[in-house]
């Protein structure tokens, strides 16, 4: 097989299983990044550095290979999903850039990438990626689409208060309309890239729908269960891709016993059905919603009820904060540093459900929780600083609570 023909096998065929893996990899990538940042405790800067380094290594391997290797390709997609999300989150959460601005910025960057790609190569077709330069343009576009998809998805679900349930339906509907447009004669290249951008917010919304507490309208599976579920389906579908690539190459996806367009639709549908059935089935095992773990006595001792606000029940955060105040009052700052991890994890887990309800109030609380984390995790924590940040947080939690 010649060099040019080897390059033609670097990108997978665009089939039903391609889209299923793409959507699922989006959720797995985002959840894994959050796990490293919050649960493992690496923090955003270390996580960003680690993921960027791993992505660089994976892309180097991908660019050096001579033929389509599914496990390397999809590893790169997952890592690009992580880094693309981190870029948007850095602009929004660290630099305070408006989602309207970041969405516009990434749309312009993507347009520039496409313009340069087309001017240099004369085509944006996926099937035409047969040189290293074209593949470099391809991965540059992929990274930008993930960043754009993150910003646009956050803008729709948070700034426009759509929430993850409506987001799942809306983004799935937009992808369906894109498919209908393609079937009606719209350009394959245009519809592919539109759908590719939309799969990012669809995957995030779908993941949030499964992971979020029933208090927020989710299925309460939790991030770990959802990630394992998605990862298992990805492994099966990518293993099938690897078998077909070894037997037939990327262009012929179908003459073997595992291949064929009809078989591909069947595998994609089976993967989606497995997610749906497992999601509904496992959610029934979580009969107690996350918010009901707090007793009526906790509600009375921690705070009093306030008129309903959009954020809803904040009892579990107020309960942890009250426990932290007790430890700080006893000058048990080491115990407070350990306990504050629970506040960080709980707040991060509830972000997708709380933030769309009232983004402005969420950001206020997020900043005050960051102040608590900073004061307790300081090299030489001050009891006065810790007490002050906790008092401010308690006041705001009571003010915003909607029980």
Automatic annotation (TrEMBL):
<keyword id="KW-0812">Transmembrane</keyword>
<feature type="transmembrane region" description="Helical">
    <location>
        <begin position="72"/>
        <end position="91"/>
    </location>
</feature>
<feature type="transmembrane region" description="Helical">
    <location>
        <begin position="137"/>
        <end position="156"/>
    </location>
</feature>
<keyword id="KW-1133">Transmembrane helix</keyword>
<feature type="transmembrane region" description="Helical">
    <location>
        <begin position="40"/>
        <end position="60"/>
    </location>
</feature>
<keyword id="KW-0472">Membrane</keyword>
<feature type="transmembrane region" description="Helical">
    <location>
        <begin position="219"/>
        <end position="239"/>
    </location>
</feature>
<feature type="transmembrane region" description="Helical">
    <location>
        <begin position="97"/>
        <end position="117"/>
    </location>
</feature>
<feature type="transmembrane region" description="Helical">
    <location>
        <begin position="7"/>
        <end position="28"/>
    </location>
</feature>
<protein>
    <recommendedName>
        <fullName>Membrane-anchored protein</fullName>
    </recommendedName>
</protein>
<dbReference type="Pfam" id="PF03988">
    <property type="entry name" value="DUF347"/>
</dbReference>
<dbReference type="InterPro" id="IPR007136">
    <property type="entry name" value="DUF347"/>
</dbReference>
């Amino acid at each position: 097989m010649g060099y040019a023909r080897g390059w033609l096998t670097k990108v997978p065929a665009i089939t039903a299983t391609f889209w299923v893996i793409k959507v699922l990899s989006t959720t797995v990538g985002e959840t894994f990044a959050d796990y490293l940042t919050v649960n493992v405790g690496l923090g955003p800067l270390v996580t960003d550095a680690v993921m960027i380094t791993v992505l660089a290594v994976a892309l180097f391997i991908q660019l050096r290979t001579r033929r389509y290797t599914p496990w390397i390709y999809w590893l790169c997609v997952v890592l690009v999903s992580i880094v693309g999300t981190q870029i948007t989150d850095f602009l929004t959460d660290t630099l305070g850039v408006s989602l309207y601005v970041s969405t516009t910025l990434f749309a312009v960057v993507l347009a520039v990438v496409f313009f340069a790609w087309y001017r240099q190569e004369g085509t944006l077709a996926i099937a035409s990626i047969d040189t290293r330069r074209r593949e470099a343009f391809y991965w540059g576009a992929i990274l930008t689409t993930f960043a754009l998809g993150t910003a646009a998805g956050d803008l729709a679900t948070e700034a426009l208060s759509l929430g993850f349930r409506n987001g799942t339906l809306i983004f799935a509907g937009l992808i369906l309309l894109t498919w209908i447009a393609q079937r009606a004669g719209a350009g394959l290249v245009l519809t592919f890239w539109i759908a590719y951008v939309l799969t990012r917010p669809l995957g995030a919304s779908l993941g949030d729908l499964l992971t979020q507490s029933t208090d927020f309208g989710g299925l309460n599976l939790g991030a770990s269960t959802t990630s394992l579920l998605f990862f298992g389906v990805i492994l099966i579908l990518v293993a099938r891709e690897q078998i077909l690539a070894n037997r037939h190459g990327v262009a012929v996806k179908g003459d073997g016993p595992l291949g064929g367009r009809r078989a591909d639709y069947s595998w994609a549908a089976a993967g989606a059905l497995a997610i749906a059935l497992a999601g509904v089935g496992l959610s029934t095992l979580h009969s107690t919603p996350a918010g009901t773990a707090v007793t009526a006595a906790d509600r009375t001792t921690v705070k009093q009820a306030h008129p309903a606000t959009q954020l809803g029940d904040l009892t579990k955060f107020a309960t942890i904060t009250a426990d932290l105040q007790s430890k700080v009052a006893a000058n048990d700052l080491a115990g407070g540093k350990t306990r504050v991890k629970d506040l960080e994890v709980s707040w991060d887990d509830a972000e997708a459900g709380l933030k769309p309800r009232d983004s402005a109030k969420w950001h206020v609380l997020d900043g005050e929780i960051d102040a608590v984390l900073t004061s307790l995790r300081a090299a030489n924590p001050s009891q006065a600083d810790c007490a002050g940040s906790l008092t401010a947080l308690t006041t705001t939690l009571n003010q915003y609570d909607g029980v």
